[in-house]
Structures are given as structure tokens and as C-alpha cells.
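Entry: Thioredoxin domain-containing protein
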Amino acid sequence: MAGSRLLMLLGVLAAHVCCIGARPTVRNIKTHSEFTKFLKHHAEVTGLPVVIDYYSDGCGPCRMVAPHYKKMAEQFKDKAVFAKVDINFNRETASHQMISSMPTFQFYLFGKKRDQFSGADTNRIMSMTQQLVREAETKNIEVTFEALQEFYKEHAPDKAAEMDDKKLQDILTKAGKGGGPGHFQLVKALKKKYDGKAPKTRARAAQAPAGKGDSKAGDAKADAQAGKAKVENNKPNLHLATIEQMEAEIKKRREEEEDKKVEAETDDDDTPQFPIYLPENRTLIRGAEQVVIIGSGPAGLSAAVYAARAGLKPVVAAPAIGGQLQGKGVDVENYPGVNMSTGPNLVYEMQLQAAQFGAVFEQEMVTLLDISKRPFTVQTNDSNIKAHSVIIATGADSRWLGVPGEWEHRGGGVSSCATCDGFLYSDKHVVVVGGGDAAMEDALVLARTSASVKVLHRRDAFRASKVLADRVLSHPKIEVVWDTTVEAFEGKKIRVLPNGLTVELSEDGSVVDENYTKMRVKDIKERLDAAGISYAGVKEKDELVKVLRGAIAEALSPAVADDGGGEPATFEERNALTRVRAKNVKTGKVTEIPASAAFVAIGHDPNTKMVEGQLELDSNKYIVIKPGSSRTSVEGVFASGDVADHVYRQAITSAGTGAMAALDAERWLSEQGYCSPAA
């Protein structure tokens, strides 16, 4: 056993070779230590603002926003730094930052958090990033020694006469080495003192190691070489080392790698890439695309495969979310020929297959569809596409209850995506609302990590499939509450302190003096651990409470609340769900169910807003199609998937109707003479 362990450790050591490169487009932060060093590096060395995306692979909205996030990172490459944290792998950072919904985006400047929000609103990410970059460009400046000297000579000659080089350098050193917010405050103070006059500034340059032109570089290099020899002699002989020595060496090398990686920031982004729609590379038929498919779920991608194989060169216009299936981290068990796969994996394979046959992707939200004149117009945030035919496969979105507290607690405990946010409530008590397949899947996903799951259903029997319903009913961690509806979601308002601790707020906004002595020792330690506050050697509960109270008092003091630029920082405040008020529909009795999170799974509404007034819709806003086809009320416009199906709503039926739509579109285009000779 010892021999095999030694071989394994030798293999790990051999693998620890760093590949240093340029700063990546999007940095993947894998440990909390790396997260801390990353923020510190850009606060002290580059001064660049930092944007961080908290995500998981099973989160549909996370996947939707990923290509947009990467595009923004490319756009702001020299002005901001973009990173991402997978909460399933870097749990410590997610816990420390109290991430309660995904995707969540944080915005930092000089190591201080400026803003945070949850959701896939790309316009909001762009707006906040632009604002952060503008602030950074204003504050991330440097006053050089020569500029300060020249300023005093011109505007304060008497002062200049009193100052020698050391005093000038002391002023700059006090403001901060290499520039940054301290230099901004220096300029601000001088402007105030000298009637708006200030020294010249330049954009702050990242601190670099000594170069060839540095007079000290040669000595430093010689010292380094001598030191290197000494270090090499002190390194353990790995062939003679004990297991303990090798484990210590691995830990040391990992820490060294993290330090180097923060400085070099090697690219390890793994966002999948597919052929992108580029207007200049397209061959149009009579001034327009043959077919544009709106939607990238099973219906849209199945249509793309069939249309591409028919030589129609389809354009798939939709964010890379892949519809409802993309948000399902559960196993796909009812799609023929697919075993041991998840929703996101199935969608990825569909995208890959469509791309192989010639489909291209416009990964932007469609903002306008005009089918009133020909050719049709499909407008996205980036493009204006003309098309002879359109396949609408926009699917459906989660339906909400519309009860008091639901909107206020979204992102703070109320969610519609268990695979996105469920892990964030590990070992907590949670609620699922609904009685269909989606509710069953959510309950089973949550039961893997939550302390308990209560399923609230308004009827006395599930409408879900028997297989899923039986699994829920027999699961030891799941309790079903029949004949029950939600009256309201209730909770508390909390304030997030700079050290990561939270305090409860009363209705007037004052801090509630919580009785921490009633908390379990385990819970006190969890709060301290999440904030990274040491309590080494403290074992008694009373002493732990003192540590917690002291950390809260320190974080609330005005001296701590500084944004790094001489201005007071604003505390982040959030709503946190604590209970669900429920009502029995038969007895009328109202009860309060304690819960840290509630997941609403009560069905979906079709995404047909863009065609209202242009296509015939039924009373529930689903697109009306002609029997036995995918044709709509407008010639050349076809519909497939959940946008036209309120009965079956399965991935396999959506894929089938997607194939139908492509075949119908090909036939119609051929009849109208819009097909290319190759098709």
C-alpha cells in the first residue's frame, strides 16, 4: 500500500508544471485561496476592475449568459478582468460570498465589492461593467515624481523651495506605490487646495519585476542565482523522502503554482464554441437567408439538423441556453437511445450535430420578428437578418405564483431552478411547489443535498408520471403536503458586512441584536468559517459568541466601511426567505412552514410575445398550427416544440416537431423557388 501511494505522489509531483501565458479572456477560479490572491493582485498591482460570474454547469441561465459574458470580456480585455467560479467545485468561495442564486455577478474595484446581482440580464452586466470601467479610469491613475515636482514649482514655488526629493517621494509613497485610488485622492486634495489646479496624471501601469534597464537588476539576478542553488540544496530528495515530506512538498508546490497563476493568469476557460453567424460570409438566395430558426432547445436544434442536411444552411438565432432541457441537471431517462446523460449534455450533442451539417449560430436574443412583409426580418442585439422562412421554437418559460413576497425573495430563497440553486441550500430545509414532472424532478434533485424537502400540491394526487411520483412518495427525505397552496413567502432583510458576516435588520433598518447564545456551536462556527474569521483555540460557546460579536462590531464600525477611494462604502442588503405561509384548500387552515428556500415548479407559459398580433394564438397564447403539420397562420412561418404544444411538452416530442418544421419549411421553400440549386 505504501509503495503504491508513493508512486501516486510522485506522479502528482511530476504533473505540477506551470504553463504561464497571457491573461485569459475569462479566468476560472478554482480555490478560495486563488480567489483571495486574485482580488489582491488586481487591487494592488494592476488596479483593474474585476467582474466575477458564479455559475454551475447544470444551470440553464448560466449557460445562456456564458457566451455573452465571454464576448464582454473580449470587449473590455484591457480595461477590466473577468473571472468565473463554479460553485460545485469552489464551494468555499461561494459560501464565503453567500451566493444564494445563480448566475450571480459581482463587481470589484481595488479589492472592494462595488455591486452584485443575480440573473441572466446581459444588459445589466454590460451597464454595470461600463460604470465600473469609467470609475476605474478616473481613479486608477498615477502621479509621477516629475509631475508632482513640476506642479509645486508652477503653482506653489514657496512650497517647492522647502521640499527636497525625499519629501516629494514621501508624499507619493503615502498615496500608494505605483498609483491607484490614493493618487486619485492626492489629486483631489491638491485641486481643492490650489483652486482647481492639479499635477498631470497618467493611467496607472501594472507593477512589473525589475528589467534589464534597472541598475539593480544585475545584482538581483546574481542574488537569485545564488539563492536558487541554496534552495535546490534544501529541497527534499524525492527518491529518499517519506510520504509526509512528499505531501508537504506537493502542498508547497500547489501554493507556488497559485501565486504564479495569479500573476500570469493562464487561460482555462472551457465555454463551448460553435460556428458563429457572420453576415459577410453568407451566400443569400434572392437577398435573404433560406431559413432562420428562433430557439436552441430540442425543437430548434432538431430543426437545425434536418434543415442543414437539406442544404438550407440554417441560422439558429437564440442564446446558448438550449431551452428548458438545458436547465435540468437530472438524468435524461426517457429520450430513446440516450443513456446516462443530462439535459445540458443532450443539448450540447444536438448543437454539435447541427454544426457538423452546416448550421451557424447567432447566439443573441431575438428582439424583433417582423413577418408582415417579405422577406421576413429577424432582429437580434447584434444583427438584422432577412429570411424567406422562419421556424419559431422559442419554448416556454417557468410560471410564477404571483403571491406576496415571491418577487421580493427571488434570488434570496425563491427560485424556479433547483439544479441551478439547490446546492446553495445544502443541509437546509426547503420547499417545492407543484405536482407535475418538473416538481418531482426538483424534489429528487434537492433531496440529494438538502436536510429535508416538503412538496406542496394543491390537489390530493400528483399529475406527474407514475415513475417519478413513486420515487418522491417513497423517498425518506421528502414529505408531501396535499391540498395546499402558497399564500405568501416571508423572510427577513439581512445586511452583508465587508467581512462576509450578516446581520438581521428590523423594519426601520436598524441592526437587530440577535441572541447568539441560543445558536448551536456548529452554527456559530459555520458563520465564522464562511467569513474566514479565525477562532483557533476557542472551544467554549460563550467565547465563540464573543468572537462572533466582536467581528460584527468591527465590520459595522465606520473605519472599516471605506471603498478604497476615500469614500464610504454602501452595505449590501438582501431579502432572505425564512418561511412559507401555506393554506389547506379543504379546511382553510393557514400554517407557517420554516424553509430556507422554495422552488416553484407549477408549469410554463409559451414565449409568444414577439408574435402577438402577427400569428393566430389560442386562448393560452400558444401558437395555433394547422393539423398534421407545423404550418402557422402565415405562409412561410412554422412552429415547433412547447411554443405550440400545451399537451405533451416532452423533449422527444419537441425534437419530433422540430424535424417536422424543417421538412415543412424545405417543402415550402422549394415550392416558392427559394431553394438553392445545391439543395
